[in-house]
Amino acid sequence: MLPLKDKTVLITRAANQVEDFINQLQGLGANTITLPLIENTAINKNELSNKLTANNYDWIIFTSTNAVKFFFETIPATTVSSKIAAVGEKTADVIKQLGLTIEFTPSEFTAQHLANEIPIEVNQQILIPRSNLAKNNIVEILEARNCVVEPISVYENSSIHYSKEEIDKVFNQKIDYITFTSGSTVQSFIELGIELSAEKVVCIGPETAKIAEQNNIKVSAVANPHTIEGLVNEITIITKNEE
Asked: Which domain holds residue 54?
């Protein structure tokens, strides 16, 4: 029997990122419901182009596949000569598909591990394309290592709002698991004022889980590795342990 048969998983990530997640879950027998809580749009295209024209960065650090997507919508991959670091395998794979080489990925797929472990030298210039809601943890760590760090927001995370009727239509169904793939999906969920009952919450990484717990959302599991595959695996483990 398929391990997630008769289980229903709510997916809250942006609509343009759900296909692989849905396929993995349904391949294990799960039912899926999508409720995109954020949408992503490109910003600061001219500023990004100007930075790449005016500066010769030693490193470009990508901490998400979205950062890769929106960066290379503006900057041709063939013009990038900087060393490239990626936070994890998925982000690295997207970059490799553009014909570029990954110089570094961290031992654990978090921005903090990347910032602490990347083999940089004093005064090297580092560009970090990111979302408008990104925290400065990675910037602070790299600056403490005496690098010149320039973060730039290349995409904007915006909350999607739903009517009470739309929310009720989703949550009147039996939901076994709610998944969060970023802190912004958690924040949008909180803004909707949804009260959880028996649903189990599974987060993609420790930072996402921390935001959930700070808002009194009990987290049942955190993916390890911090990927969609890791999320699916945690859901499968929880389900198996309940049998």
From this structure: 41-157
- The domain total for the chain is 2
pLDDT higher than 90, residue 197: no
Q: 92, 124, 157: which is the final residue of a domain?
A: 157
> At residue 195, does pLDDT exceed 90?
no
Say which residues have a Cβ less than 8 Å from residue 149's Cβ, sequence separation at least 6.
Answer: 126, 128, 139, 142, 143
pLDDT, position 152: 98
Six-digit token string for 122: 């004093």
Whether the link from the prior residue into 3 is cis, omega within 30° of 0, is: no
Mean pLDDT of 99-108: 96
200 shares a domain with 143 = no
Pairing of strands 59-62, 125-131: parallel
Output the six-digit token pair for 102.
């990954």
